[in-house]
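To the wet lab folks,

You asked to see what we're planning to order before we commit. Fair enough. Below is the target structure as tokens, and below that is the sequence we designed to fit it. If anything looks off to you, flag it before the synthesis order goes out.
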């Protein structure tokens, strides 16, 4: 229903606030269709990374060839066909578990929530295409690119089966061809592809699949970032598991030396499961690559006697410990904060990362124009609730603004912290 403006009085304007994970939405607008296939130079022109993004220092997660190569005793028992399967080559691949290094009881995979599609800006290099040209030396360029796309989709197919527990699906949206520099190492290749911000073309991540060897690396990624590099033509390396492992670093999982876990270097070749710590990390950050969050705080209001602290803390789609707070000193006190999403959406659910020091009545509204508001939920956040994601309702129409209000009413108080907001399609 359309809500009277009494609960949402005129907003006091605040300084615009953005985080490193939320670029200026104007970057998304393009006056022409974005091609599916392009060169690396074209990709860089369409989606250049901002100076702010390039200034971020990420923790590098490095996978070595030694860590990811199957033991000789396992390789000796495998046929050439099975060894080709490890690389997920188009003529060989079927999305099933190819080998086991230890007996492990099968675990039924259950999705957790609505699927999260992670759109990929894929970069394939000349060395990857050479795998096809070696046996098809006269194949035209487009044929080689189509084969590389099929190969890449094969790799993601099984990786997605691993990530299905978190409702995550990687989907290749755009493909760029790159004559990558040789003999520079995977870390230098990662430095190079960081010049691309995938959000500039509506994607979420940039992945380089390379056919070159640097003698030591199987893959390298930015933990908590949006980029990784992986070798796809290294003998006796299961590239689908390597993809899932590198992708997990983007969700802030770390490598660790003990336990049975895909992220545990001693056991990553023998399991597709996650340990409890990595499982919790994946659940917490499963939506971090969805860039439809609050890009800007556009205002706030007080319900006297009430206070609003750090209203810009609602910016972002992932928890970052930079929190906004609303407090009501006595009956009727509290306030509201209004954020603008980084693009208008339609038929979406609003999720708020929220905690409460006392039981608090919280209202959530959406608007397409920051003037006419529709209430989508009213709920009591329980006393002493730790920070967590709360489903705050859905709206079938379009909206670009989200308002969160807390009011001290009845027997409830008003004291909440809000870290971030993100929206999820209901379709």
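Sequence we intend to order:
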């Amino acid at each position: 229903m359309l809500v009277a403006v009494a609960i949402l009085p005129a907003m006091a304007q605040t300084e615009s606030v953005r985080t490193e994970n939320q670029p200026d939405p104007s970057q998304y607008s393009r006056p022409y269709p974005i091609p599916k296939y392009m060169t690396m130079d074209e990709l860089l022109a369409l989606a250049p990374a901002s100076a702010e993004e390039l200034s971020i220092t990420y923790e590098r997660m490095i996978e070595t060839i030694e860590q990811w190569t199957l033991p000789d005793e396992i390789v000796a028992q495998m046929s050439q066909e099975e060894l080709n399967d490890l690389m997920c080559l188009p003529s060989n691949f079927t999305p099933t578990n190819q080998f086991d290094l230890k007996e492990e009881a099968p675990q039924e995979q259950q999705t957790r929530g609505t699927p999260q599609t992670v759109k990929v800006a894929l970069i394939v290099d000349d060395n990857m295409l050479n795998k096809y040209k070696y046996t098809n030396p006269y194949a035209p360029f487009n044929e080689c690119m189509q084969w590389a796309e099929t190969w890449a989709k094969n790799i993601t197919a099984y990786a997605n089966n691993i990530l299905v527990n978190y409702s995550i699906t990687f989907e290749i949206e755009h493909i760029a061809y790159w004559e990558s520099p040789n003999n520079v190492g995977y870390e230098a290749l990662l430095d190079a592809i960081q010049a691309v911000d995938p959000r500039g073309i509506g994607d979420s991540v940039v992945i380089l699949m390379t056919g070159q060897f640097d003698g030591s690396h199987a893959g390298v990624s930015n933990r908590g970032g949006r980029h990784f590099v992986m070798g796809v033509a290294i003998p006796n390396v299961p590239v689908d598991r390597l993809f899932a492992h590198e992708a997990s670093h983007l969700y802030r999982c770390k490598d660790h030396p003990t336990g049975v876990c895909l992220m545990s270097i001693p056991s990553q070749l023998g399991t597709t499961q996650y340990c409890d710590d990595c499982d919790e990390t994946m659940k917490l950050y499963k939506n971090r690559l969805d860039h439809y969050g609050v890009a800007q705080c556009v205002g706030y209001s007080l319900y006297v006697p009430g206070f609003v602290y750090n209203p810009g803390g609602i910016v972002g789609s992932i928890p970052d410990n930079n929190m906004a707070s609303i407090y009501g000193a006595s009956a009727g006190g509290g306030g509201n904060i209004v954020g603008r999403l980084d693009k208008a959406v339609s038929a979406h659910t609003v999720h708020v990362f929220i905690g409460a020091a006392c039981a608090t009545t919280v209202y959530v509204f959406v608007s397409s124009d920051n003037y006419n508001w529709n209430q989508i939920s009213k709920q009591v956040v329980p006393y002493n609730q730790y920070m967590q994601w709360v489903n705050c309702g859905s709206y079938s129409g379009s909206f670009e603004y989200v308002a969160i209000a807390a009011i001290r009413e009845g027997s409830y108080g008003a004291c909440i912290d809000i870290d971030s907001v993100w929206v999820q399609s209901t379709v």
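Structural context that might help your review: The chain is about 20% helix and 35% strand. The first strand starts at residue 2 and ends at 3.

Thanks,
Computational group
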